[in-house]
Amino acid sequence: MADQQAAGSGGQVLVCENVSRWFGGLQALKRIDVAINQGEIFGLVGPNGSGKTTLVNAITGFYPPQEGIIRFYDSTLNGLKPYKVAMQGIARTFQNVALFKGMSVLDNILLGRHIFMRPSALASLFYWWWAQKEEIAHREKAEEIIDLLQLESVRDEPVDVIPLGMQKRVELARALCAEPKFLVLDEPMAGMNQEEKEYMVRFILDAQEALGLTVLLIEHHMDVVTAICDRVVVLNNGEKIAEGPAREAINDPAVVAAYIGKSHDAA
Amino acid sequence: MFYRQSGVHHTRYQTARRLWPLPTDQGIVWLLLALAVAAPLYLSDLYLTSYLLPWLIWSAAALSLTLLMGIAGQLHFGFAAVMAIGAYTSIHLTRAGVPFELALIGAGLMAAGIGCIFGAAALRVKGLYLVMATLAMQYLVDWTIINVPAISGGAQATLQTPDVRFLFVPLRGDAMLYYGALLWAVIVTLLVLNIKRTSFGRALVAVRDKDFAASVIGVNPFKFKLLAFFASSFLGGVSGAVLAFCYYQAVTPEQFGFNVSIQLVAMVLVGGLGSVIGAYLGAGFVLLVPIILTNLVAGAAAAGWLSVSSNLLAHIPLMVYGGLIIGFILFEPLGLAKIYDNLRKYFLVWPFRHTQS
Ligand SMILES: Nc1ncnc2c1ncn2[C@@H]1O[C@H](COP(=O)(O)OP(=O)(O)OP(=O)(O)O)[C@@H](O)[C@H]1O
Ligand SMILES: [Mg+2]
């Protein structure tokens, strides 16, 4: 955790100021302010449709905000295409698993190394003298992540035949392979049973510790949120209604009311 | 059985990523290559130059197209035009005294350049609109070639290929022409196989499968679609040049008309999208089936069982392609390659019934 110290444990990794996003007449984000510190696991919670995924999409360049500024370390992310955001060191997973169906688990994970590789048809033509060395070097890196997330047994399977819980783990592996500074997880435990959930929590903590990550976690399971998040922000109808240490923010009367108002199942 | 997966364990990433990890597959490949190299010794000139040689070149062309349609997922219905650009460029360059090796590269670059211009325009649209855009390319290129005498050599003209040397060997005589075609087929095959196991191919497949998920890991979808157009058109251009020099030994615009584009798409689809062995099977199928069919129908007509006009006879192959394309899309989208793969897997796990990979 040396670099974490260097950056100062109070250093801010990602800052959203006044971020607003409209979809037609619907304002999905209303002047959101969020600041995420180096090395923390930051929770983003709220009832369905409250704007959590939209905020993540704003950060990662899919739905750029119409108002507000998003800063990542010293640079602004506004206006960057998603692939450029990825190159800045931000990796994410999707709420609905977004793996490449036509490929094996290994190839999916190897794709996480894309930003460090120099793909070219010419290098492929002269594979034995050119591309092979690079492929093997990055394979070794990918194997470290496979090892960390215990994916050895499914490594060569086509990715669409393995269970959903495993697919979510593969997606996490693909994100980690990019050696991100900042990792965004959009409901990594949705649809998992208790055992799978516990595994996933373990993996997130392991990865965070091993790679010195800062994590933004969207999660509906409040037990998980209170257990691993340092701080949380609660959204409702695109508005920030609470912020602070996990247990306190979740028990905030406004938050309880928001969840009851939606008669939510996960609270 | 001799064809087994069990007992084959790789202990190094290098061997695990071999083109053919199983010893039996390697054996088959070497055997096929040896047979191909020795073909002039045991095949009659007729079979060598009118069956095997065009089959190899068309397979190379189908491979070029499957790189774009199968691996990168971009439809192209004007690929014959790409080949035409390559063929005409190579002829004009060699006539101007450029060495054949450089003329081939020039043919590839010219085809890739023009292919990319249409590609860039086409990439802003998807699916059916992409089909329309590539069709437009076919007609524009056809029209330009026919109507610009500097390219076609005048209306109805046939341009003969000049005598050339490839790497100091004169490209003359059936065997040499055949080896030229074989060499090109081997190069394209290795290239496409290698693309499929390296970061370039993975990025193409990623963009094809889910472009938003590709961009979240840092793949620029537009760039890679364009690169796919470039690489595929380059190979298509050179394939056109090889076809002109090693097979037709002359070019006319009709050799690269719209129906040839459809034939190429049929080769790729019937063989199996994105499959290397599929390109060979598809090309063989598309080249052979019309011959067999025409002979059958002509035979039946001659025997008096059927009465067909020669006009209808000429159209039977086209109708059969149409039917085949539809049939394969409906019933076996993965094409002949899938049928081959099923067979191979049957032997792999014999005497058991099921396999995992
Ligand atoms: N592409 C879009 N076009 C139009 N409206 C959208 C779009 N994406 C999201 N919205 C709307 O924005 C609001 C916030 O949606 P969002 O997906 O961010 O919610 P969420 O908090 O992630 O909910 P969930 O817990 O169900 O994932 C919703 O009302 C949704 O309908
Ligand atoms: Mg969501």
Tell me the strand order in the biggest sheet of chain A.
Answer: 6-7-8-3-9-10
Low-confidence stretches of chain B: none
CATH architecture of the largest domain in chain A: 3-Layer(aba) Sandwich
Q: What is the H/E order of chain A?
A: HEEEHEEHEHHHHEHEHEEHH
Inertia-based shape of chain B: globular
Through-space gap between termini of chain B: 19 Å
CATH topology name of the largest domain in chain A, in short, is Rossmann fold
Mean pLDDT reading of chain B: 87
Report the oligomer: heterodimer
Bound molecules: adenosine-5'-triphosphate, magnesium ion
Number of domains of chain B: 1
Number of helices of chain B: 15
Shape field of chain A: globular
- By CATH, the superfamily of the largest domain in chain A comes out as P-loop containing nucleotide triphosphate hydrolases
Residue share in β-strands of chain B: under 5%
Summed over residues and divided by their number, the pLDDT of chain A gives a mean of 90
* CATH architectural type of chain B: Orthogonal Bundle
Separation of the first and last Cα atoms of chain A: 34 Å
What is the gyration radius of chain B calculated from CA atoms?
21 Å
Biggest sheet descriptor of chain A: 6 strands, mixed
